[in-house]
Design a protein that fits this description.
The chain has one domain. Helix content is about 75%, strand content about 0%.
Length: about 475
């Protein structure tokens, strides 16, 4: 038989009223007060729990938005490749997390933050990974495991540099500015030293006979972490490491999904699925680490020349390079010439792409001019929509939309874009919840071991579902 606490409380109060001066009554009074506190806590606890659940839900929706944005942009990037495509995608991811953050001081730094993100994510575009993807598609465990593990390393380098430089732009304030010139010098030096030591001296080849530029990114990433550690930038270190793990896992897992889709004969661009995977996991891990780290309460807006320089690089130079490398007439002719005999259509495609890019630059320039650095959320939203939708439109063009060729994955880009736009229109900023310990090496080591175990399992599953598929490569000779 269970007696309700409120009934016991009433009995205690009745005894206390009859004998207020007795020791028993004093004891009962104390017990009643303690019981009242307990009852209050039991009533208040569900409200507190409900608040925490709502906060977690809001944060994960915001984190998901960044993952969707970078995942979609990285899939679009697959139509262009290289550093410039990755830089455009990285900039889109930054624009979305700035919107989700709800921080007015970050709105003012929008161009410097997005440029840092674009450069960080873009640098990894120099890495060659076509053969590594082929290793992951083989039917031989050592080759598959090697391929998936090296894709984890490559994806981790994308995330390390992308998350790290983005986080440094958030950390930089007037009181403690990041010395960008020194940092970039150290990263270049680190990249050169690592390349000549690992490749020329130790002959550590990841993708023979392809370029081994991964070593440059590896050295640059180590130099960046060293710079962060010397200057006590604990939050950027945390963002860089967590984003590296997320993007690395995303690339490895994406390669597994690509193999699975090929075996199941799914009529879809599975290479694009792999690209979406690295962007999605990289974006969610970057957003999670940013929203759970400590940042200066107020960031000072950049001076005019910094904003203008960042604008020119981010919104003019990067699109110009994309156009020159993928959308000018000669490039479209070499890409679509076998499918289209009419040169006028290819020329029209090039002109339309140029017009779309110029329109985007003009719109974003007007926003910059009218806002006069005091950017609002509405301004950032317009920038994001203009930059994102332009990327999607030119992806249609570069794959032959004006010739009548359309692909399902492009339509899914639009669906993702609409979902992101709708969620952003709800205007629900995340609630920052910094972790007590910024740099937790033991926890990161556990995560790393866990990821490697998962990669081993994925490799075992992969070799058990096929006996060889097109595109497979072999890093190590087969037995027998």
């Amino acid at each position: 038989m269970t007696i309700e606490p409120r009934v016991v409380k009433k009995l205690y109060l009745a005894i206390y009223e009859l004998h207020p001066g007795s020791l028993l009554s004093v004891h009962i009074h104390r017990q009643t007060v303690d019981m009242s506190k307990s009852i209050f806590r039991s009533v208040a606890a569900p409200e507190s729990t409900k608040l925490k659940i709502n906060t977690m839900k809001k944060n994960w929706i915001g984190i998901l938005m960044v993952g969707l944005a970078l995942g979609t942009a990285w899939a679009v990037r697959g139509q262009f490749g290289h550093e410039q495509g990755a830089a455009w995608a990285g900039g889109i991811g930054a624009l979305v997390f700035i919107l989700v953050s709800g921080r007015n001081d970050w709105y003012k730094k929008v161009f410097t933050i997005t440029l840092s993100s674009a450069i960080g994510w873009g640098v990894g575009g120099m890495i060659s990974y076509g053969r590594v993807v082929g290793f992951g598609r083989s039917d031989h465990f050592p080759n598959v495991f090697y391929g998936l593990l090296m894709l984890f390393v490559i994806g981790a380098l994308f995330g390390l540099l992308g998350g790290g430089l983005t986080a440094l732009s958030l950390q930089s304030t007037n009181g403690k500015k990041v010395k960008w010139g020194r940092l970039l010098g150290e990263m270049v030096g680190g990249g050169v030293i690592a390349y000549y030591f690992l490749i020329n001296q130790l002959w550590v080849y990841m993708t023979p006979p392809r370029s081994e530029a991964w070593a440059v990114c590896f050295g640059g990433g180590l130099a960046m972490l060293w710079h962060m550690a010397r200057n006590n930038y604990s939050s950027p270190i945390r963002v860089a490491i967590i984003t590296a793990m997320g993007a690395g896992f995303g690339f490895s897992f994406g390669n597994f999904l690509q193999t699975l889709g090929t075996v199941l004969e799914i009529n879809f661009n599975m290479w694009n699925v792999m690209e979406y995977s690295i962007g999605f996991f990289g974006g969610t891990s970057m957003a999670y680490s940013i929203f759970t780290s400590r940042w200066p309460e107020q960031s000072t807006a950049p001076v005019k020349w910094e904003n203008r320089a960042a604008f020119l690089i981010f919104l003019v130079l990067i699109p110009l390079i994309v156009f020159r490398q993928s959308l000018q007439f000669s490039k479209l002719s070499s890409r679509l010439g076998d499918l289209v005999n009419n040169e006028s259509i290819l020329l029209l495609s090039s002109y339309v792409a140029a017009a779309v890019m110029v329109a985007m630059i003009i719109i974003c320039g007007l926003i910059l001019y009218r806002s006069k650095i005091a950017y609002s959320r509405n301004d950032i939203m317009k920038l994001m929509v203009s930059y994102f939708i332009t990327f999607i439109i030119i992806s249609y063009i570069v794959t032959g939309a004006l010739t009548g060729r359309f692909h399902l994955n492009h339509h899914l880009y639009v669906v993702n874009f609409l979902v992101i736009g709708y969620l952003l229109s709800l205007k629900k900023p995340v609630a920052f919840s910094p972790k007590k310990q910024e740099v937790n090496r033991k926890l990161w080591l556990i995560y790393l071991i866990g990821i490697i175990v998962v990669i081993i399992l994925l490799a075992l599953i992969s070799i058990s579902i096929h006996d060889g598929i097109p595109g497979a490569q072999y890093r190590f000779p087969l037995n027998g």
